[in-house]
Amino acid sequence: MATSKVTADLDSQAFRRGFKAATKGLKFNSEAELIRFAYNVRNKAIVHCPVDTGRLRNSIGILGQGRDEKGFYIKVGTKVEYAAVVEFGSRPHVIRAKKAKVLANKKTGQVFGKEVNHPGTSAQPYMRPALLESALQWKPRITP
Q1: Nearest Cα to 125, choosing from 37, 38, 49?
Q2: Do 118 and 55 fall within a single domain?
Q3: Domain range for residue 100?
Q4: Does residue 144 lie within any of the structural domains?
Q5: Nearest alpha carbon to residue 42 among 14, 75, 66
Q6: So what's the pLDDT on residue 24?
Q7: Rounded to an integer, what distance in angstroms lies between the CA atom of residue 131 and that of residue 40?
Q8: Based on the domain organization, do 113 and 130 belong to the same domain?
Q9: Is the pLDDT of residue 4 over 50?
Q10: Are residues 16 and 73 in the same domain?
Q11: Which of 85, 91, 67, 64 is nearest to 127 (CA)?
Q12: Which residue of 68, 74, 122, 126 sits 20 to 30 Å from the alpha carbon of 27, by its own alpha carbon?
């Protein structure tokens, strides 16, 4: 009987405490069970994902699986470059023109200058809630 452990490498201390409590004793009796859990997380992440263009939501999936010293693992997530900013938000920061002389919106024709002070963005978590919900609702299948 294969067992696997769920882990998370995320920044929020509160999330880590909640995740640890939610996953305490969470074990998977087979690789198929872990795969079912991973798809459950993916489906919940798609539901929680904020939508602007749909690119982020459409990219959420199973990124890979394999074995390491801890056993079988499966990765759920996205490779969209701005995914972490959506999940965790961003602090205020300066955006500077790199190749162009000024920053501009090509669609509207609005010109902003050589740099702008971005106010930052609020976090819009989608993976963390999906993982917590899945862990709290997990019911392993009992097979004969």
Answers
A1: 49
A2: no
A3: 90-122
A4: no
A5: 75
A6: 72
A7: 9
A8: no
A9: no
A10: yes
A11: 85
A12: 126
